[in-house]
What does this fold into?
Amino acid sequence: MSHGPVKKFLNAIEPLIWGPFVTGNFLTPLFFPAIILMLCIAAPLGWLPEGALSYERAHALATNPIVVVGILALIPLALLAGSHHLRFGIIDVASAEHDGPVALTLYGLWQLGAVVTAIAILRIFFD
Amino acid sequence: MAIPAHPDAMKPRARTRTHVAAPMMAGNWWTPSPRYRAYVAYAFSGVFIWLQTLVFIRGLWALGTGEVAWNAFLEDLCHPLYVVFHVLSLAVIVWYGARTYFKLFVKTQPPKIGPMPRPPLWVFPPALAGAWLFVTLAVVLVLGGVWP
Amino acid sequence: MDAPEKKTFVVTRFDPDRDELPKTQEYEVPVQPDWKVLDALNWIKDEIDPSLSHRWSCRMAVCGSCGMNVDGEPKLTCKTALSDYGDKVTVEPLSNFPVIRDLVVEMDGFMERFQAVKPWIIRAKELAVEEGATRQSPEELSHFKQFSMCINCMLCYAACPVVGKEPGFLGPAAIALAHRYNLDTRDQGQAERLAALREGELYNCSYANECSEVCPKNVDPSGAIQQSKLLSTIDWVQGLVLPRTGK
It folds into this structure.
Protein backbone atom coordinates (compact mmCIF):
# COMPACT_ATOMS: atom_id res chain seq x y z
CA MET A 1 0.00 0.00 0.00
CA SER A 2 1.62 3.26 -1.01
CA HIS A 3 1.23 6.18 1.33
CA GLY A 4 2.20 9.79 0.96
CA PRO A 5 5.17 11.08 2.96
CA VAL A 6 2.97 12.53 5.70
CA LYS A 7 1.20 9.21 6.31
CA LYS A 8 4.52 7.36 6.21
CA PHE A 9 5.93 9.74 8.81
CA LEU A 10 2.85 9.37 11.02
CA ASN A 11 3.03 5.57 10.78
CA ALA A 12 6.72 5.63 11.72
CA ILE A 13 6.25 7.73 14.87
CA GLU A 14 2.99 6.11 15.91
CA PRO A 15 4.46 4.21 18.92
CA LEU A 16 5.75 7.54 20.21
CA ILE A 17 2.19 8.87 20.16
CA TRP A 18 0.41 5.77 21.41
CA GLY A 19 2.29 5.47 24.72
CA PRO A 20 1.50 9.02 25.87
CA PHE A 21 -2.00 8.73 24.39
CA VAL A 22 -2.82 5.72 26.55
CA THR A 23 -1.42 7.55 29.59
CA GLY A 24 -3.63 10.54 28.81
CA ASN A 25 -6.61 8.25 28.26
CA PHE A 26 -5.99 6.88 31.74
CA LEU A 27 -5.28 10.13 33.59
CA THR A 28 -8.06 12.25 32.07
CA PRO A 29 -11.03 10.35 33.54
CA LEU A 30 -9.08 9.89 36.77
CA PHE A 31 -8.64 13.61 37.51
CA PHE A 32 -11.06 15.56 35.35
CA PRO A 33 -14.39 14.62 36.94
CA ALA A 34 -13.37 15.85 40.39
CA ILE A 35 -11.80 19.06 39.05
CA ILE A 36 -14.85 19.83 36.91
CA LEU A 37 -17.14 19.09 39.83
CA MET A 38 -15.30 21.39 42.24
CA LEU A 39 -13.99 24.20 40.05
CA CYS A 40 -16.69 24.38 37.39
CA ILE A 41 -19.89 23.27 39.13
CA ALA A 42 -19.58 23.48 42.94
CA ALA A 43 -17.74 26.82 42.98
CA PRO A 44 -20.07 28.67 40.54
CA LEU A 45 -23.10 27.32 42.42
CA GLY A 46 -21.65 28.61 45.69
CA TRP A 47 -21.25 25.22 47.34
CA LEU A 48 -17.65 25.74 48.37
CA PRO A 49 -16.54 27.34 51.64
CA GLU A 50 -15.33 30.94 51.49
CA GLY A 51 -11.77 31.27 50.26
CA ALA A 52 -11.43 27.72 48.98
CA LEU A 53 -10.52 28.97 45.52
CA SER A 54 -9.33 32.45 46.42
CA TYR A 55 -6.49 33.88 44.38
CA GLU A 56 -4.00 33.36 47.23
CA ARG A 57 -4.95 29.74 47.74
CA ALA A 58 -5.14 28.91 44.04
CA HIS A 59 -1.77 30.57 43.48
CA ALA A 60 -0.23 28.64 46.35
CA LEU A 61 -1.61 25.38 45.00
CA ALA A 62 -0.45 26.09 41.46
CA THR A 63 3.10 26.79 42.60
CA ASN A 64 3.34 23.59 44.65
CA PRO A 65 5.93 21.39 42.88
CA ILE A 66 3.75 18.26 42.96
CA VAL A 67 0.81 20.18 41.50
CA VAL A 68 3.03 21.74 38.82
CA VAL A 69 4.29 18.31 37.74
CA GLY A 70 0.69 17.07 37.80
CA ILE A 71 -0.58 19.91 35.61
CA LEU A 72 2.30 19.61 33.15
CA ALA A 73 1.52 15.90 32.81
CA LEU A 74 -2.26 15.97 32.88
CA ILE A 75 -3.14 18.91 30.63
CA PRO A 76 -0.97 18.05 27.58
CA LEU A 77 -1.79 14.34 27.87
CA ALA A 78 -5.51 15.15 28.04
CA LEU A 79 -5.17 17.23 24.89
CA LEU A 80 -3.35 14.36 23.19
CA ALA A 81 -6.05 11.91 24.20
CA GLY A 82 -8.67 14.25 22.77
CA SER A 83 -6.74 14.80 19.54
CA HIS A 84 -6.04 11.12 19.00
CA HIS A 85 -9.65 10.13 19.61
CA LEU A 86 -10.86 12.84 17.25
CA ARG A 87 -8.43 11.78 14.55
CA PHE A 88 -9.87 8.27 14.47
CA GLY A 89 -13.41 9.52 14.94
CA ILE A 90 -13.01 11.55 11.77
CA ILE A 91 -11.68 8.52 9.90
CA ASP A 92 -14.70 6.53 11.04
CA VAL A 93 -17.40 9.04 10.08
CA ALA A 94 -15.64 10.23 6.93
CA SER A 95 -12.57 8.49 5.53
CA ALA A 96 -8.82 8.20 5.93
CA GLU A 97 -8.29 10.13 2.70
CA HIS A 98 -7.22 13.31 4.48
CA ASP A 99 -5.81 11.60 7.55
CA GLY A 100 -2.34 13.08 6.94
CA PRO A 101 -3.29 16.76 7.24
CA VAL A 102 -6.04 16.06 9.81
CA ALA A 103 -3.61 14.20 12.08
CA LEU A 104 -0.90 16.84 11.69
CA THR A 105 -3.42 19.54 12.59
CA LEU A 106 -4.78 17.71 15.63
CA TYR A 107 -1.33 16.75 16.92
CA GLY A 108 -0.09 20.25 16.15
CA LEU A 109 -2.88 21.70 18.27
CA TRP A 110 -1.87 19.31 21.02
CA GLN A 111 1.74 20.51 20.90
CA LEU A 112 0.55 24.11 20.91
CA GLY A 113 -1.64 23.43 23.92
CA ALA A 114 1.30 21.81 25.73
CA VAL A 115 3.48 24.85 25.08
CA VAL A 116 0.75 27.25 26.20
CA THR A 117 0.29 25.21 29.40
CA ALA A 118 4.01 25.40 30.14
CA ILE A 119 4.01 29.15 29.55
CA ALA A 120 0.91 29.53 31.75
CA ILE A 121 2.72 27.74 34.59
CA LEU A 122 5.80 29.93 34.17
CA ARG A 123 3.60 33.03 34.30
CA ILE A 124 2.18 31.89 37.61
CA PHE A 125 5.66 31.55 39.02
CA PHE A 126 6.94 34.85 37.73
CA ASP A 127 3.86 36.78 38.70
CA MET B 1 -27.91 1.31 3.25
CA ALA B 2 -24.46 -0.13 2.56
CA ILE B 3 -21.84 2.40 1.53
CA PRO B 4 -18.67 1.89 -0.46
CA ALA B 5 -15.57 0.96 1.53
CA HIS B 6 -12.14 2.14 0.38
CA PRO B 7 -11.80 0.87 -3.22
CA ASP B 8 -8.59 -0.96 -2.27
CA ALA B 9 -9.93 -2.52 0.94
CA MET B 10 -8.66 -6.12 1.29
CA LYS B 11 -7.23 -5.94 -2.23
CA PRO B 12 -4.54 -8.57 -2.76
CA ARG B 13 -1.14 -7.41 -3.96
CA ALA B 14 -1.16 -10.03 -6.67
CA ARG B 15 -4.62 -10.03 -8.14
CA THR B 16 -5.37 -12.52 -10.89
CA ARG B 17 -9.07 -11.77 -11.40
CA THR B 18 -10.19 -9.20 -13.90
CA HIS B 19 -13.58 -8.19 -12.57
CA VAL B 20 -14.60 -8.07 -8.94
CA ALA B 21 -17.32 -5.99 -7.30
CA ALA B 22 -16.04 -3.17 -5.10
CA PRO B 23 -15.94 -3.73 -1.32
CA MET B 24 -18.88 -2.29 0.64
CA MET B 25 -19.28 -1.32 4.28
CA ALA B 26 -22.36 -1.94 6.42
CA GLY B 27 -23.43 1.70 6.49
CA ASN B 28 -22.64 5.19 7.71
CA TRP B 29 -21.56 5.51 11.31
CA TRP B 30 -25.16 5.97 12.51
CA THR B 31 -26.61 2.99 10.66
CA PRO B 32 -24.88 -0.23 11.73
CA SER B 33 -25.85 -0.78 15.40
CA PRO B 34 -26.28 1.02 18.78
CA ARG B 35 -23.03 -0.60 19.86
CA TYR B 36 -21.20 0.97 16.93
CA ARG B 37 -22.83 4.36 17.51
CA ALA B 38 -21.60 4.23 21.12
CA TYR B 39 -18.08 3.65 19.82
CA VAL B 40 -18.27 6.69 17.52
CA ALA B 41 -19.66 8.75 20.41
CA TYR B 42 -16.68 7.62 22.46
CA ALA B 43 -14.29 8.87 19.78
CA PHE B 44 -16.03 12.25 19.68
CA SER B 45 -15.95 12.69 23.44
CA GLY B 46 -12.53 14.03 22.41
CA VAL B 47 -14.40 17.28 21.65
CA PHE B 48 -15.46 17.60 25.28
CA ILE B 49 -11.99 16.69 26.52
CA TRP B 50 -10.52 19.46 24.34
CA LEU B 51 -13.07 22.10 25.33
CA GLN B 52 -12.76 21.24 29.02
CA THR B 53 -8.98 21.37 28.91
CA LEU B 54 -9.14 24.76 27.19
CA VAL B 55 -11.22 26.02 30.14
CA PHE B 56 -8.52 24.75 32.51
CA ILE B 57 -5.76 26.38 30.48
CA ARG B 58 -7.72 29.62 30.52
CA GLY B 59 -7.90 29.36 34.31
CA LEU B 60 -4.16 28.78 34.57
CA TRP B 61 -3.50 31.77 32.32
CA ALA B 62 -5.80 33.96 34.43
CA LEU B 63 -4.00 32.80 37.58
CA GLY B 64 -0.72 33.91 36.07
CA THR B 65 -2.16 37.30 35.06
CA GLY B 66 -3.23 38.33 38.52
CA GLU B 67 -5.97 38.40 41.14
CA VAL B 68 -8.38 40.49 39.04
CA ALA B 69 -8.11 38.13 36.08
CA TRP B 70 -8.53 35.07 38.33
CA ASN B 71 -11.67 36.47 39.94
CA ALA B 72 -13.01 37.42 36.52
CA PHE B 73 -12.44 33.80 35.42
CA LEU B 74 -14.34 32.49 38.46
CA GLU B 75 -17.13 35.00 37.71
CA ASP B 76 -17.34 33.80 34.11
CA LEU B 77 -17.70 30.22 35.27
CA CYS B 78 -20.93 31.25 37.00
CA HIS B 79 -22.60 32.03 33.68
CA PRO B 80 -25.51 29.59 33.14
CA LEU B 81 -24.20 28.45 29.75
CA TYR B 82 -20.84 27.60 31.29
CA VAL B 83 -22.53 25.66 34.10
CA VAL B 84 -24.70 23.72 31.63
CA PHE B 85 -21.65 22.94 29.51
CA HIS B 86 -19.74 21.72 32.54
CA VAL B 87 -22.55 19.48 33.75
CA LEU B 88 -22.68 17.98 30.26
CA SER B 89 -18.91 17.73 30.12
CA LEU B 90 -18.83 15.98 33.49
CA ALA B 91 -21.42 13.43 32.33
CA VAL B 92 -19.56 12.79 29.07
CA ILE B 93 -16.16 12.42 30.75
CA VAL B 94 -17.52 10.12 33.45
CA TRP B 95 -19.14 7.95 30.74
CA TYR B 96 -15.92 8.07 28.73
CA GLY B 97 -13.92 7.13 31.84
CA ALA B 98 -16.20 4.26 32.78
CA ARG B 99 -15.94 2.87 29.25
CA THR B 100 -12.16 3.29 29.21
CA TYR B 101 -11.58 1.67 32.59
CA PHE B 102 -14.18 -1.07 32.74
CA LYS B 103 -14.58 -2.06 29.11
CA LEU B 104 -11.27 -1.30 27.48
CA PHE B 105 -8.43 -1.13 29.99
CA VAL B 106 -8.51 -4.74 31.13
CA LYS B 107 -8.12 -6.09 27.60
CA THR B 108 -4.90 -4.14 27.02
CA GLN B 109 -2.99 -6.12 29.63
CA PRO B 110 -0.88 -8.92 28.17
CA PRO B 111 -0.39 -12.07 30.27
CA LYS B 112 3.09 -10.86 31.05
CA ILE B 113 5.48 -8.09 30.06
CA GLY B 114 8.96 -9.57 29.83
CA PRO B 115 9.29 -11.63 33.01
CA MET B 116 6.63 -9.68 34.94
CA PRO B 117 3.36 -11.62 35.26
CA ARG B 118 0.04 -9.81 35.20
CA PRO B 119 -2.21 -9.79 38.29
CA PRO B 120 -5.46 -11.79 37.80
CA LEU B 121 -7.91 -9.88 35.61
CA TRP B 122 -10.58 -9.57 38.27
CA VAL B 123 -8.23 -7.27 40.23
CA PHE B 124 -8.39 -4.48 37.67
CA PRO B 125 -11.98 -3.14 37.87
CA PRO B 126 -12.01 -2.71 41.67
CA ALA B 127 -8.42 -1.39 41.62
CA LEU B 128 -9.30 1.20 38.98
CA ALA B 129 -12.50 2.15 40.77
CA GLY B 130 -10.54 2.45 44.03
CA ALA B 131 -7.91 4.65 42.39
CA TRP B 132 -10.64 6.87 40.95
CA LEU B 133 -12.36 7.23 44.33
CA PHE B 134 -9.06 8.04 46.02
CA VAL B 135 -8.10 10.70 43.48
CA THR B 136 -11.59 12.20 43.47
CA LEU B 137 -11.58 12.44 47.24
CA ALA B 138 -8.12 14.02 47.25
CA VAL B 139 -9.10 16.62 44.65
CA VAL B 140 -12.37 17.40 46.47
CA LEU B 141 -10.48 17.95 49.72
CA VAL B 142 -7.82 20.11 48.10
CA LEU B 143 -10.09 22.26 45.90
CA GLY B 144 -12.73 22.35 48.59
CA GLY B 145 -10.43 24.20 50.91
CA VAL B 146 -10.25 21.41 53.48
CA TRP B 147 -6.59 20.45 52.94
CA PRO B 148 -3.95 21.82 52.92
CA MET C 1 -47.27 -30.17 11.61
CA ASP C 2 -47.85 -26.46 10.96
CA ALA C 3 -47.38 -25.10 7.48
CA PRO C 4 -43.86 -23.75 7.22
CA GLU C 5 -43.47 -20.01 7.75
CA LYS C 6 -42.47 -18.04 4.67
CA LYS C 7 -39.63 -15.56 4.77
CA THR C 8 -38.38 -13.30 2.01
CA PHE C 9 -34.65 -13.32 1.41
CA VAL C 10 -33.06 -10.31 -0.26
CA VAL C 11 -29.84 -11.74 -1.63
CA THR C 12 -27.01 -9.92 -3.34
CA ARG C 13 -26.31 -11.26 -6.83
CA PHE C 14 -23.31 -10.47 -8.97
CA ASP C 15 -22.14 -12.26 -12.10
CA PRO C 16 -18.74 -10.86 -13.11
CA ASP C 17 -19.29 -11.91 -16.72
CA ARG C 18 -22.63 -10.18 -17.08
CA ASP C 19 -23.07 -7.54 -14.37
CA GLU C 20 -21.29 -4.24 -14.01
CA LEU C 21 -22.48 -3.84 -10.41
CA PRO C 22 -24.07 -6.16 -7.84
CA LYS C 23 -27.86 -6.16 -7.54
CA THR C 24 -30.35 -7.84 -5.24
CA GLN C 25 -32.77 -10.65 -5.93
CA GLU C 26 -35.67 -11.67 -3.70
CA TYR C 27 -36.62 -15.25 -2.94
CA GLU C 28 -39.57 -16.52 -0.93
CA VAL C 29 -38.53 -19.49 1.19
CA PRO C 30 -40.67 -21.78 3.37
CA VAL C 31 -38.52 -22.02 6.50
CA GLN C 32 -38.60 -24.70 9.19
CA PRO C 33 -38.47 -23.48 12.83
CA ASP C 34 -34.95 -24.79 13.44
CA TRP C 35 -33.42 -23.55 10.19
CA LYS C 36 -30.32 -21.46 9.95
CA VAL C 37 -29.65 -18.88 7.23
CA LEU C 38 -27.48 -21.43 5.43
CA ASP C 39 -30.40 -23.87 5.21
CA ALA C 40 -32.44 -21.21 3.43
CA LEU C 41 -29.61 -20.41 1.02
CA ASN C 42 -29.16 -24.08 0.19
CA TRP C 43 -32.92 -24.43 -0.31
CA ILE C 44 -32.84 -21.47 -2.72
CA LYS C 45 -29.99 -23.09 -4.65
CA ASP C 46 -31.67 -26.50 -4.69
CA GLU C 47 -35.24 -25.47 -5.43
CA ILE C 48 -35.32 -22.07 -7.12
CA ASP C 49 -32.03 -20.82 -8.48
CA PRO C 50 -29.05 -23.16 -9.02
CA SER C 51 -26.94 -20.19 -10.13
CA LEU C 52 -26.68 -18.80 -6.60
CA SER C 53 -23.08 -19.10 -5.37
CA HIS C 54 -22.12 -19.18 -1.72
CA ARG C 55 -19.37 -20.77 0.37
CA TRP C 56 -20.14 -23.31 3.07
CA SER C 57 -18.74 -26.58 4.33
CA CYS C 58 -18.97 -28.04 7.83
CA ARG C 59 -22.43 -26.71 8.85
CA MET C 60 -21.22 -26.59 12.44
CA ALA C 61 -19.21 -23.37 12.85
CA VAL C 62 -15.72 -24.84 12.79
CA CYS C 63 -14.56 -24.38 9.20
CA GLY C 64 -15.14 -20.63 8.86
CA SER C 65 -16.38 -20.87 5.25
CA CYS C 66 -19.91 -19.51 5.47
CA GLY C 67 -19.36 -15.95 6.69
CA MET C 68 -21.80 -13.40 5.21
CA ASN C 69 -23.56 -10.18 6.19
CA VAL C 70 -27.03 -11.01 7.52
CA ASP C 71 -29.14 -7.87 8.00
CA GLY C 72 -25.92 -5.88 7.92
CA GLU C 73 -24.02 -7.88 10.58
CA PRO C 74 -21.26 -10.35 9.79
CA LYS C 75 -22.40 -13.85 10.79
CA LEU C 76 -21.64 -17.50 10.22
CA THR C 77 -24.75 -18.45 8.30
CA CYS C 78 -24.59 -22.05 9.53
CA LYS C 79 -25.15 -20.95 13.09
CA THR C 80 -27.45 -17.97 12.61
CA ALA C 81 -30.99 -19.02 13.48
CA LEU C 82 -33.76 -17.68 11.25
CA SER C 83 -36.07 -17.57 14.24
CA ASP C 84 -34.10 -14.49 15.36
CA TYR C 85 -35.12 -12.62 12.22
CA GLY C 86 -38.29 -11.09 10.84
CA ASP C 87 -40.15 -11.76 7.60
CA LYS C 88 -37.47 -10.17 5.44
CA VAL C 89 -33.83 -11.19 5.72
CA THR C 90 -31.02 -9.47 3.83
CA VAL C 91 -28.02 -11.60 2.91
CA GLU C 92 -24.98 -9.84 1.47
CA PRO C 93 -21.34 -10.78 0.96
CA LEU C 94 -19.01 -9.89 3.83
CA SER C 95 -18.31 -6.15 4.14
CA ASN C 96 -14.94 -4.71 3.18
CA PHE C 97 -14.05 -7.50 0.76
CA PRO C 98 -14.03 -7.37 -3.04
CA VAL C 99 -16.72 -9.71 -4.35
CA ILE C 100 -15.93 -12.47 -6.84
CA ARG C 101 -19.51 -13.58 -7.40
CA ASP C 102 -22.85 -13.40 -5.54
CA LEU C 103 -21.99 -14.07 -1.87
CA VAL C 104 -18.41 -15.23 -2.50
CA VAL C 105 -15.66 -12.76 -1.52
CA GLU C 106 -12.05 -12.54 -2.62
CA MET C 107 -9.92 -13.98 0.18
CA ASP C 108 -6.46 -13.46 -1.27
CA GLY C 109 -5.87 -10.19 0.57
CA PHE C 110 -6.72 -11.98 3.81
CA MET C 111 -4.23 -14.79 3.13
CA GLU C 112 -1.50 -12.26 2.29
CA ARG C 113 -1.96 -10.57 5.66
CA PHE C 114 -1.47 -13.86 7.46
CA GLN C 115 1.82 -14.50 5.71
CA ALA C 116 3.01 -11.00 6.56
CA VAL C 117 2.94 -11.65 10.35
CA LYS C 118 5.25 -14.72 10.23
CA PRO C 119 2.82 -17.14 11.88
CA TRP C 120 5.34 -19.84 12.83
CA ILE C 121 7.74 -20.54 15.68
CA ILE C 122 10.88 -18.48 15.14
CA ARG C 123 13.97 -19.74 16.98
CA ALA C 124 17.21 -17.80 17.41
CA LYS C 125 18.90 -21.19 17.64
CA GLU C 126 17.20 -24.49 17.00
CA LEU C 127 17.56 -27.01 19.81
CA ALA C 128 19.46 -30.16 18.94
CA VAL C 129 17.40 -33.36 18.94
CA GLU C 130 19.54 -34.73 21.80
CA GLU C 131 18.35 -31.87 24.02
CA GLY C 132 14.92 -33.42 23.99
CA ALA C 133 11.44 -32.02 23.56
CA THR C 134 10.66 -28.36 24.28
CA ARG C 135 8.56 -28.27 27.41
CA GLN C 136 5.59 -25.97 27.93
CA SER C 137 3.43 -25.91 31.03
CA PRO C 138 -0.39 -25.77 30.91
CA GLU C 139 -0.15 -22.28 32.39
CA GLU C 140 2.16 -21.14 29.59
CA LEU C 141 -0.23 -22.66 27.05
CA SER C 142 -3.14 -20.83 28.63
CA HIS C 143 -1.51 -17.48 27.80
CA PHE C 144 -1.95 -17.91 24.06
CA LYS C 145 -4.49 -20.69 23.61
CA GLN C 146 -7.43 -18.35 23.18
CA PHE C 147 -5.70 -16.59 20.28
CA SER C 148 -5.04 -19.89 18.54
CA MET C 149 -8.74 -20.71 18.25
CA CYS C 150 -9.31 -18.59 15.13
CA ILE C 151 -11.16 -20.41 12.34
CA ASN C 152 -10.27 -17.77 9.74
CA CYS C 153 -13.90 -16.95 9.08
CA MET C 154 -13.10 -13.27 8.32
CA LEU C 155 -16.14 -11.94 10.21
CA CYS C 156 -13.76 -9.66 12.13
CA TYR C 157 -12.51 -8.12 8.88
CA ALA C 158 -16.08 -7.46 7.81
CA ALA C 159 -16.87 -5.82 11.13
CA CYS C 160 -13.75 -3.68 11.41
CA PRO C 161 -14.27 -0.04 10.34
CA VAL C 162 -10.53 0.44 9.86
CA VAL C 163 -10.22 -2.49 7.43
CA GLY C 164 -12.80 -0.75 5.28
CA LYS C 165 -11.01 2.58 5.31
CA GLU C 166 -7.27 1.85 5.57
CA PRO C 167 -6.10 -0.68 2.98
CA GLY C 168 -2.66 -1.05 4.58
CA PHE C 169 -4.06 -2.26 7.92
CA LEU C 170 -3.30 -5.90 8.75
CA GLY C 171 -6.63 -6.52 10.40
CA PRO C 172 -7.81 -8.38 13.50
CA ALA C 173 -7.24 -12.06 12.71
CA ALA C 174 -3.71 -11.55 11.40
CA ILE C 175 -2.70 -9.49 14.44
CA ALA C 176 -4.33 -12.00 16.80
CA LEU C 177 -2.37 -14.79 15.14
CA ALA C 178 0.87 -12.79 15.46
CA HIS C 179 0.07 -12.29 19.14
CA ARG C 180 -0.54 -16.03 19.54
CA TYR C 181 3.05 -16.63 18.46
CA ASN C 182 4.45 -13.71 20.42
CA LEU C 183 3.00 -15.20 23.60
CA ASP C 184 4.22 -18.72 22.84
CA THR C 185 7.15 -19.53 25.13
CA ARG C 186 8.76 -21.62 22.40
CA ASP C 187 8.99 -18.58 20.13
CA GLN C 188 11.98 -16.23 20.04
CA GLY C 189 10.87 -14.02 17.18
CA GLN C 190 8.80 -11.43 19.02
CA ALA C 191 10.92 -8.46 17.94
CA GLU C 192 10.76 -9.50 14.30
CA ARG C 193 7.03 -10.06 14.45
CA LEU C 194 6.30 -6.81 16.28
CA ALA C 195 8.25 -4.96 13.58
CA ALA C 196 6.03 -6.68 10.99
CA LEU C 197 2.95 -5.54 12.94
CA ARG C 198 4.18 -1.95 12.95
CA GLU C 199 4.81 -2.25 9.21
CA GLY C 200 1.20 -3.42 8.96
CA GLU C 201 -0.17 -0.26 10.62
CA LEU C 202 -0.96 -1.93 13.94
CA TYR C 203 -1.73 1.39 15.62
CA ASN C 204 -4.44 2.26 13.10
CA CYS C 205 -6.76 0.11 15.17
CA SER C 206 -9.09 2.58 16.85
CA TYR C 207 -10.39 0.05 19.41
CA ALA C 208 -13.92 -0.16 18.03
CA ASN C 209 -13.97 -3.70 19.46
CA GLU C 210 -16.37 -4.80 16.70
CA CYS C 211 -14.04 -7.65 15.77
CA SER C 212 -14.35 -9.26 19.19
CA GLU C 213 -18.10 -8.64 19.24
CA VAL C 214 -18.64 -10.68 16.06
CA CYS C 215 -16.02 -13.39 16.60
CA PRO C 216 -17.82 -16.76 16.79
CA LYS C 217 -14.95 -18.42 18.68
CA ASN C 218 -14.30 -15.80 21.41
CA VAL C 219 -10.76 -15.29 20.20
CA ASP C 220 -10.98 -11.64 21.28
CA PRO C 221 -8.78 -10.25 18.50
CA SER C 222 -9.35 -6.77 19.91
CA GLY C 223 -7.62 -7.80 23.14
CA ALA C 224 -4.77 -9.27 21.12
CA ILE C 225 -4.39 -6.02 19.17
CA GLN C 226 -4.34 -3.81 22.26
CA GLN C 227 -1.85 -6.10 23.98
CA SER C 228 0.25 -6.07 20.81
CA LYS C 229 0.25 -2.27 20.81
CA LEU C 230 1.61 -2.29 24.34
CA LEU C 231 4.28 -4.89 23.60
CA SER C 232 5.15 -3.18 20.33
CA THR C 233 5.58 0.22 22.01
CA ILE C 234 7.90 -1.27 24.62
CA ASP C 235 9.79 -3.11 21.88
CA TRP C 236 10.07 0.05 19.77
CA VAL C 237 11.45 2.09 22.68
CA GLN C 238 13.90 -0.72 23.49
CA GLY C 239 14.95 -0.69 19.85
CA LEU C 240 15.74 3.02 20.06
CA VAL C 241 17.60 2.85 23.33
CA LEU C 242 19.41 -0.45 22.82
CA PRO C 243 19.95 -0.89 19.08
CA ARG C 244 19.74 -4.52 18.07
CA THR C 245 22.63 -6.23 16.38
CA GLY C 246 22.13 -9.00 13.87
CA LYS C 247 18.69 -10.62 13.81
Remarks:
- Residues 115-148 of chain B form one domain.
